[in-house]
Amino acid sequence: MNDGSLTREGIRIHQPGDFAGMHKAGALAAQILDEVGALVQPGATTGAIDDFIRNRVEEAGATSATIGYRGYQHASCISVNHVVCHGIPGEKVLKDGDILNVDVTVIVDGWYGDSSRMYVAGTPSVKARRLIQVTHDALMKGIEAVRPGATFGDIGWAIQEYAEGQRMSVVRDFCGHGLGRVFHAPPNVLHFGRPGKGPVIEEGMFFTIEPMINLGRPETKTLADDWTAVTRDKSLSAQFEHSIGVTASGAEIFTLSPTNKFYPELG
Ligand code: MF3
Ligand code: CO
Ligand code: CO
């Protein structure tokens, strides 16, 4: 395999030396998300959390991938309760029981680190906790399906089968993506699918898995701001995202929490 090779689906096969750059970028995204935990409290605004993230990215000498991306102006997406993804940080004040996803993408030495997690303000409902647990476990089951020779359909199936088995639904309007020296590249990583379908996974592929799971129906709509995606039925939605690289035997997670905080303390 020569340097810079693409599969016939346009998926880039990276070289062994490229993993180090992704680990560095992923580690910064994870470090910042670890620090965000202390800021998520009833009374905090989503804008204040975003300001912190913007400053931390700058302090680290890194670049935010989202500021200026297709006109987006913020260093994070913060998606509260029934917001599925791409929530815009601002004046919104968190209240007791809110659940939220914070999604950060940084660029370090040209490599992209993209990760998101759930947080809770105060004490969440039993249903909200269950949604968070199922969404986290769905992501991890997706990652466990990754190995050379498996397919992207195997990843989608692992997530869908588990989430629907828990009587929750998988959002189909947004997907994971290849990344590396670019933010969004082939393939579209669907969070639903059938075993054996889709492109074959190969060593050296870098991509995100970022399932969005709803307590109610899977349909979403985008608000007039052209970014904020919400559940049509207003049911709660959750998401977790890791950036990973395919190794000879499975996957390496680039965005692992340095202090094991990926899964939140649920109040
Ligand atoms: N980080 C998001 C993802 O997981 C993309 C955010 S794009 C933005 O792919 F412009 F909304 F920030
Ligand atoms: Co992503
Ligand atoms: Co993201």
Structural account:
A hairpin with a 4-residue loop joins strand 16 and strand 17 (251-253). It is globular, with a radius of gyration of 17 Å. It has one domain (18-253): Alpha-Beta Complex (Creatine Amidinohydrolase). Helix 1 packs antiparallel against helix 2 (46-59) and helix 3 (126-144) runs antiparallel to helix 4. Helices cover 25% and strands 25% of the residues. The chain has helices at 18-36, 46-59, 126-144, 152-165, and strands spanning 5-6, 12-13, 63-64, 77-80, 83-85, 99-108, 111-120, 169-170, 176-178, 185-189, 206-209, 212-214, 220-222, 229-231, 237-239, 242-246, 251-253. The chain starts with a strand and ends in a 14-residue tail after the last strand. The strands form 6 sheets. Strands 3, 4, 6 and 7 form a 4-stranded antiparallel sheet that branches. Strands 5-14-13 form a 3-stranded antiparallel sheet, with no helix packed on it. A 3-stranded antiparallel sheet has the order 8-12-15, with helices on one face. The longest helix has 19 residues, at 18-36. It is an alpha+beta fold. The structure holds 2-amino-4-trifluoromethylsulfanyl-butyric acid and cobalt (II) ion (2 copies). The site of one cobalt (II) ion has 5 residues, from strand 6 and strand 7. 2-amino-4-trifluoromethylsulfanyl-butyric acid is lined by residues 66, 69-70, 72, 77, 86, 103, 105, 114, 208, 210, 227, 241.
